[in-house]
Amino acid sequence: MSVLGDPDGRSSDQVDAAFAQIVAAYDSAPAEVTWPSSEDLPAPPPAPVDKPAGPVWPVGGPILNRDPRTADPDGPSLLDGLDTFGAELPDDDEPFVPPPPPPLPRISFQAIVGVIAIVAGLFLFFDSGLLPLGDQAAMLLGLIGIIGGAAALIMRLRPGGPDDPDLPDDGAVV
Question: What is the C-alpha to C-alpha distance for residues 101 and 105, in angstroms, rounded to an integer?
Fold first, then answer.
């Protein structure tokens, strides 16, 4: 019985038998050597009985590197070592006192005038009866105040910040 999609036309029983043969031969020694003899490795020497297996680095290192067979069971454990970590450091009895904050910058006269122009322009724009002018003239004056105040504030902005390098103004360099 052929399985659909099997390109060789083998049955699933044949595939299962081939797989079982591969698995059974996995741990067995090869019948013949398929590599050159120059790649054969010598057998490792037997490990000494009195030394622990695995690396112990550094020799006088922390508790983790001690051999558990020769270690004192009543001696310090890893948790005891972590509990005493940093015990020899001096205690900080002085509380942290942050430095005083820098003073607030002074608001310039131009910025105050720009904000007042925007606020007055908004009042004139929405309530045109505040001035003894026509409605359209008061709205136009309010709109001019809003735009003029915003322009005054925007023109005061400087490009860059305190961390940006001062670039020379060379003009158009070709």
Answer: 12
Break the chain down into helix, strand, coil percent, rounded to 5. 40, 0, 60
Alpha-carbon gap, residue 117 to 141, rounded angstroms: 10
Q: What is the DSSP letter of 6?
A: -
Q: Quick one: DSSP state of residue 38?
A: G
Tell me the residue type at 46: P
Query: CA angle 103-107-111, nearest 5°?
Result: 155
Tens digit of each residue's pLDDT (9 = 90 or more) over 108-121: 899 999 999 999 99
In this prediction the pTM is 0.38
Tell me whether residue 141 is exposed, middle or buried, using C-beta atoms within 10 angstroms of its C-beta: 0 to 12, 13 to 18, 19 or more: middle
Instruction: Give the integer Cα–Cα distance in Å for 134 and 139.
Output: 9
Supply the Cα-derived Rg of the chain in whole angstroms.
44
- Whether 153 and 111 have beta carbons less than 8 Å apart is answered as yes
Residue found under tokens 């050159």: 36
Distance CA 160, CA 164 (A): 6
Of the candidates 157, 82, 149, the one whose C-alpha atom is nearest the C-alpha of residue 115 is 149
Inter-residue contact 65 to 56 (CB < 8 Å): yes
